[in-house]
Design the sequence.
C-alpha cells in the first residue's frame, strides 16, 4: 500500500517536472503582467522635447526569464534538497546539533562582552587613531545605543507583551531632560543620568495609566499617538525647547570633572598624554558599554524576580494573572516605567554625546526601528535583540561605504541611497526564514532539575 | 443560615443588559466541605463563579467570606453598612467579595479559582506557573523587587521555600518529571491538574473549580476525585465546584446546589438532590408528572 516516490521514481519525477513547469509558467505570466507597464514601457523625451513611448522588450524578456529560471530552480533543486534534508534529519543528528548550539550559547555571551570591551583597541590597532573615530563613534556607540534601547523596549514588548510604538518618546524625554537641565543649571552628566531616567520612568507611568485597559492593536495605536504628541510638543513649545531649531551647545560629559579638551586642565594634559579628540570618544564608548551592561544585568535579574515572572505571565494570560492575585495594573505600570527608564538613560547619553538635539532625532521612524530590532531579534531574547541591533544599525552604517558595489552596478550607483531598500529586503527575508525572530526560544527563569528551553510555538507573542 | 459557613451568597442577581443570568440566588458553602454547583448548560453557574471571584460586579446582592471562627458572622451587618471591603476581628476576618477587585479576592480574601477553558501560562514551565501563583508572598520577600535586584539573601531563601512548595504540589499531582517542560506541552488531563495545583499555591481558604473534570477520561476523573478529597481532608481547604460529570459530583461533594435559568431549584445533600423531581425535570426536560416514567426509564 505504501507507495512512495522512491518505489516509483519515474512517475513522481515526471509529475514534479510538470508541476515545476506549471509553477514557472504562472510565475512568468504574473511577472509579465506586473512588469509590462513598469518595465515594458518607458516615456522618454525626443529631440523635439516631446514625450514618446519607448518599448523595451529585451529587458522585459530578461526579467521574465530570470523569474522563470528562479521558479524552476526552487521547484527542481531547492525544494527536493530541503525535503531530502528533512527526511535525513535523524534524532542523533539533532541531538548533536543541539549540543553544538548549547556550546555556542554558553560561550557567546562572555565572548561578546569581551569583544565589546576590546573593540576600540582593535579598531585603533587596525585603523589608526584617525580612522578609528568612525568605527568607534559612528559604529560602536551608535549600535550600543540601539542595543540598549532594544533591551529597554524588550521589557515592555518582549516580556510584558505590551506593544509600544511610541518608545522613542521616552528617549526624547531623557535627551531633553539632560539638555535642558545641564544647560540651565549646569548639573553634571552623572547627576543628570539617573535624573533623566527617573523623569522618563515618570512619563512611562503617565502613559501607562490611560492605556491600562487597552490591548493589542489599540494599545499600539495609542502609544504611537503618545510618541507623536511628545514630538509635536517639542516642536511647538518653542520657548521651552527651542522648537525645530533644537538645543545646541549641550555640555559634554567630563571625566569625573576633568573636561576632554586641549586646555591645560583638560584630560590629556592632566594625564600627560598628547591631545586627541579620541579620548572623549573612547570615554563615551565605555560609558555606553557600562549603561548597556547595566540594562542587561537589571533585566536578567528582574526576570528571575516575581515582578519579571509576573510580566511574562501577563504576556501569556492576563485573566489567569488576576485570578492568582497578581495586581495587573501595577505590573503593567512597572513594565512601562522600567522600559522608559532605560530609554531615558539612553536619551541623556545621546544628548551628551551629540551636543545637539532636535525633534528630528525622535521621529516615528526611530520607534519603528527599535520595535523592528526587538521583533527581529526574537521577543524576550537579550542576545537576539543585541544581534538584531548590530545587524540593523551596523548593517545600514556599513552600507554607507560599500564602494565595491559600484563595480557591480556602475559608477552612478550610490549605495547609501539603496540602503533602506536592501535593509527592508533583508527584514522580509529574515521574517520568512525565522518568523519569530532570530532567537525565538524562551529561557525559563528557574528550573527544578534541568534547564530546558521553551519552544517558540508555546510562547505568546507580544500582542498586548 | 448555618454558622459554620465559609461563604454566604445572598440575593445575588446578575444582569447583562436585559438578560438576567442569575436571579436572587442565595446559598452557603460550609467550611471544610466540598460544595457542588450543578445545572444544565446556560444555567448561570459560571456567572455565579465570576461574581464570587470578583471578575463580575453583581447587579445586586451580597457575597461574604469568612476567615477564622464563626463568631465573625456577627460582624456582617455592620460591615455591610460601612463602606469597607473587609474587617479584621481577632484572628479572623470578614470580606465582602462583591466590593473587591478580582486580584484582591485572591490576594486578601484568599479565594482561588480555575477556569472552564484551561488558562495556564503555556509558554512558561510547569514550575514557573506554580511560582507565579506565589507572586504576592515572593513580592514581599523581595522587598517589592528592591532587595531582589540587589541580591539579598532573604529573597533567595524565600524563593527556595517557594520552589519547595511547588515541588510538593508537583509530587501531589504527579508531574515532578515534567516540572521543567512548558505548561502548554502537557497532555490535557495534566493541564487540568496543574491548574488546580497552581490555584492551591496561592494558599486559598476557598478553592473554586470551574468544571475540573471536563474532558477527562474515567481514570483521570477518579484521580481528580482523590486530589480534591486530599485537598479537603489534608489541606483543609473548602471547595466550591461547578461540574457536569455526575460521577465526580455524586462521589465527592458533601453539598449540592442545582441552578436552572439563573435560580436555585434544589439545595441539599447529594441524595436529596438526586431524588428531587425538579432536578430531574430540569435535566431531562419533562413535566413533573412524567418524572416517574422518566425515572423508571433511566433506572432510578
Sequence:
Amino acid at each position: 500500500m505504501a507507495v512512495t516516490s522512491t518505489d516509483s521514481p519515474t512517475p513522481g519525477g515526471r509529475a514534479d517536472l510538470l508541476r515545476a513547469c506549471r509553477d514557472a509558467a504562472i510565475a512568468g505570466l504574473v511577472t509579465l503582467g506586473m512588469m509590462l507597464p513598469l518595465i515594458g514601457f518607458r516615456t522618454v523625451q525626443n529631440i523635439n522635447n516631446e514625450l514618446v513611448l519607448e518599448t523595451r522588450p529585451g529587458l522585459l524578456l530578461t526579467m521574465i526569464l530570470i523569474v522563470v529560471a528562479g521558479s524552476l530552480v526552487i521547484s527542481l533543486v531547492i525544494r527536493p534538497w530541503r525535503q531530502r534534508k528533512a527526511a535525513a534529519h535523524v534524532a542523533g543528528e539533532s541531538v548533536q546539533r543541539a549540543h553544538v548550539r548549547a556550546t555556542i550559547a554558553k560561550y557567546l555571551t562572555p565572548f561578546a562582552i569581551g569583544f565589546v570591551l576590546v573593540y576600540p583597541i582593535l579598531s585603533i590597532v587596525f585603523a589608526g587613531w584617525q580612522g578609528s573615530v568612525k568605527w568607534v563613534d559612528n559604529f560602536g556607540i551608535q549600535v550600543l545605543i540601539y542595543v540598549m534601547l532594544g533591551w529597554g523596549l524588550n521589557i515592555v514588548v518582549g516580556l510584558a507583551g505590551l506593544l509600544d510604538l511610541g518608545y522613542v518618546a521616552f528617549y526624547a524625554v531623557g535627551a531633553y531632560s539632560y539638555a535642558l537641565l545641564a544647560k540651565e543649571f549646569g548639573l553634571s552628566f552623572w547627576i543628570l543620568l539617573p535624573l533623566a531616567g527617573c523623569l522618563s520612568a515618570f512619563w512611562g507611568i503617565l502613559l501607562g495609566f490611560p492605556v491600562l485597559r487597552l490591548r493589542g492593536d489599540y494599545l499600539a495605536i495609542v502609544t504611537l499617538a503618545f510618541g507623536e504628541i511628545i514630538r509635536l510638543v517639542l516642536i511647538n513649545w518653542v520657548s521651552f525647547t527651542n522648537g525645530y531649531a533644537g538645543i545646541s551647545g549641550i555640555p559634554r560629559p567630563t571625566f569625573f570633572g576633568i573636561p576632554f579638551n586641549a586646555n591645560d586642565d583638560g584630560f590629556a594634559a592632566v594625564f600627560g598624554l598628547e591631545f586627541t579628540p579620541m579620548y572623549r570618544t573612547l570615554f563615551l564608548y565605555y560609558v555606553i558599554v557600562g549603561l548597556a551592561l547595566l540594562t542587561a544585568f537589571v533585566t536578567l535579574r528582574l526576570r528571575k524576580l516575581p515582578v519579571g515572572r509576573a510580566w511574562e505571565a501577563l504576556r501569556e494570560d492576563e485573566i489567569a494573572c488576576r485570578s492568582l492575585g497578581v495586581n495587573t495594573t501595577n505590573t503593567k505600570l512597572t513594565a512601562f516605567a522600567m522600559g522608559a527608564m532605560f530609554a531615558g538613560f539612553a536619551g541623556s547619553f545621546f544628548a551628551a554625546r551629540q551636543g545637539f538635539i532636535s525633534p528630528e532625532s525622535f521621529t516615528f521612524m526611530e520607534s519603528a526601528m527599535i520595535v523592528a530590532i526587538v521583533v527581529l531579534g526574537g521577543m524576550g531574547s537579550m542576545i537576539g535583540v543585541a544581534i538584531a541591533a548590530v545587524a540593523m544599525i551596523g548593517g545600514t552604517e556599513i552600507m554607507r561605504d560599500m564602494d565595491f558595489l559600484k563595480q557591480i552596478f556602475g559608477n552612478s550607483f550610490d549605495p547609501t541611497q539603496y540602503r533602506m531598500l536592501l535593509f527592508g529586503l533583508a527584514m522580509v527575508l529574515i521574517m520568512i526564514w525565522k518568523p519569530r525572530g532570530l532567537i525565538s526560544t524562551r529561557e525559563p527563569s528557574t528550573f527544578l532539575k534541568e534547564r530546558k528551553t521553551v519552544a517558540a510555538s508555546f510562547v505568546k507573542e507580544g500582542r498586548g | 443560615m448555618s454558622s459554620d459557613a465559609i461563604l454566604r451568597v445572598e440575593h445575588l442577581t446578575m444582569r447583562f443588559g436585559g438578560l438576567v443570568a442569575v436571579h436572587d440566588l442565595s446559598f452557603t458553602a460550609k467550611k471544610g466541605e466540598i460544595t457542588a454547583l450543578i445545572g444544565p448548560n446556560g444555567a448561570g453557574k459560571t456567572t455565579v463563579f465570576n461574581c464570587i471571584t470578583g471578575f463580575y460586579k453583581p447587579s445586586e446582592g451580597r457575597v461574604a467570606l469568612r476567615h477564622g471562627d464563626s463568631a465573625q458572622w456577627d460582624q456582617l451587618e455592620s460591615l455591610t453598612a460601612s463602606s469597607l471591603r473587609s474587617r479584621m476581628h481577632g484572628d479572623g476576618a470578614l470580606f465582602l467579595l462583591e466590593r473587591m477587585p478580582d486580584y484582591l479576592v485572591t490576594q486578601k480574601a484568599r479565594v482561588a479559582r480555575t477556569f472552564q477553558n484551561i488558562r495556564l501560562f503555556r509558554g512558561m514551565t510547569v514550575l514557573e506557573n506554580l511560582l507565579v501563583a506565589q507572586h504576592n508572598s515572593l513580592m514581599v520577600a523581595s522587598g517589592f523587587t528592591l532587595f531582589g535586584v540587589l541580591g539579598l539573601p532573604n529573597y533567595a531563601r524565600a524563593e527556595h521555600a517557594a520552589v519547595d512548595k511547588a515541588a510538593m504540589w508537583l509530587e501531589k499531582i504527579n508531574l515532578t518529571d515534567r516540572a521543567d517542560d512548558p505548561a502548554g506541552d502537557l497532555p490535557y488531563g495534566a493541564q487540568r491538574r496543574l491548574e488546580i495545583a497552581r490555584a492551591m499555591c496561592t494558599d486559598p481558604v476557598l478553592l473554586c473549580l470551574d468544571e475540573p473534570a471536563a474532558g477527562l477520561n474515567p481514570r483521570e476523573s477518579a484521580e481528580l476525585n482523590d486530589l480534591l478529597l486530599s485537598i479537603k481532608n489534608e489541606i483543609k481547604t473548602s471547595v466550591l465546584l461547578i461540574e457536569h460529570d455526575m460521577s465526580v459530583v455524586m462521589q465527592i461533594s458533601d453539598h449540592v446546589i442545582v441552578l436552572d435559568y439563573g435560580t436555585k431549584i434544589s439545595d441539599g445533600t447529594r441524595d436529596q438532590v438526586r431524588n428531587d423531581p425538579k432536578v430531574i425535570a430540569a435535566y431531562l426536560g419533562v413535566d413533573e408528572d412524567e418524572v416517574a416514567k422518566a425515572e423508571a426509564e433511566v433506572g432510578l
